[in-house]
Amino acid sequence: xxxxxxxxxxxxxxxxxxxxxxxFRALDLPFPDPVAVSLMPTDLTEIQPLERRVDTLLRLDxxxxxxxxxxxxxxxxxxxxxxxxxAYYIAHLYxxxxxxxxxxxxxxxxxxxxxxxxxxxxxxxxxxxxxxRPLVLGPHNVPAITxxxxxxxxxxxxxxxxxxxxxxDNAAAILKALAAALKTVDEDTARIFAELTELxxxxxxxAKTWRHLMSVDLSFFRSETSQRxxxxxxxxxxxxxxxxxxxxxxxxxxxxxxxxxxxxxxxxTLRGWLKRSLTAATAEDLFANPKD
Length: 292
Fold this sequence. Notes:
This is Rpn family recombination-promoting nuclease/putative transposase. A hairpin with a 4-residue loop joins strand 2 (56-62) and strand 3 (67-74). The two termini are 28 Å apart. This protein has helices at 4-15, 18-25, 82-97, 110-116, 148-153, 155-164, 171-182, 187-201, 206-217, 224-248, 255-263, 267-277, and strands spanning 34-39, 56-62, 67-74, 101-106, 120-122, 130-132, 135-137. The chain has twelve helices and seven strands. It is globular and about 55 Å long.
């Protein structure tokens, strides 16, 4: 099962893809800032029988006219099966899009980060046919941002700092800086990155510190407006997911069905439809339950 921490570690780059280039410029890898970003399908499934999905896949277009794919994988622990999957992802994506791919692995502990950074070689020792070199972000190279003004200048990077350093001794100082920085932005933006931080921290002790900061320093997250926005966001997200699943499966969605899905405000109903969208033969099959 994919954890909330796993989800947050790669979703930061969906919220702000530019954080990728900014972070690695500090590490003397001059990736240019993107001028256009496209969120691409993460499903790398072959026709039969094996399903493969990356965590986040983005196409980054730069001012120079160059483009590359950014494949973001969140890794919580060492997994001997992962290198083969990563190599498959990169080869498949290059064959499919003919755009140079970059693999970024995000980690929360140095041991996993060190393991993930090892080059992956495929082929006999006499001739390595393929070498994959992941870029890795973790507590060993993401700056620990403890200054609120620094955090306010780049909140996505400050969020990544809080997540990757969630198990460090100075986690509390990093979280306090981020909490202060979130007060300088609009509520929608603050809510997104506050929730990403909580998800990313997972079960780390720092998660309790973060929840306390949110309840004391950011009381607007408990406002009726914030609670309404959270509920609306979940509803809208479920409706989009249903339509995406049906589209990916090649199932036609008539206008009346689309309207019924997008106008529904009951979260439990949408969850039921989302589950059925995985197996439904037609769009109308979503509503097979008489209770719907």
